[in-house]
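Q: Convert this sequence to structure tokens.
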Amino acid sequence: MSEELSMSMSMFATVADYKAARRRECSGAGPLRRCADTGGRVMSEKKTIEIAVYRDPAGNPTCAADWDAGHVCKFLRTSKFGFVEHCFFGEKGDDVIERDGDSVGWLRPIPACPLWPSSGRDAARADVERLLYALKEIRGRIKNHPAYEELTLDEEIEVGGDTAELSYLARVADEAISAAEVGAA
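A:
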């Protein structure tokens, strides 16, 4: 048994007292040691940390508002002598923060950023792509329905019923898909 351990055990009347003392959570060292008896239970608490987030003059999320003033996200890191910005929350390869305007504009949060969920351009683009995929799927099901016929607006009014409704829904879906594809280009 080490000298330190034998001295510490000699301070207790029984082994049970020693074990009870060992269950305490302690901080500090020597005479400044502070312990709280937990009865062998692990104690935990939740804390909230406030972190400043920034926006550009147009109100869009950004990782850095003013480098000189220190208005920079606490999770922003740089490499290559400060020429490449990275987000702490990104996976290797997906952590590079993009800029607007050919590498001279505002830094935009990556999709994995928990401070700006779904705020990055990639996340917004992915949302549009998912909606577009769903709309194309719906349009395909409408056009494959046995009651579907491609009708003009006048024909829809004249025919009526399910056939006219399906024709209308397919036409609206076609217009929405065309507008989305033109806007994405």
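The chain has three domains: 3-36, 54-108, 121-184.
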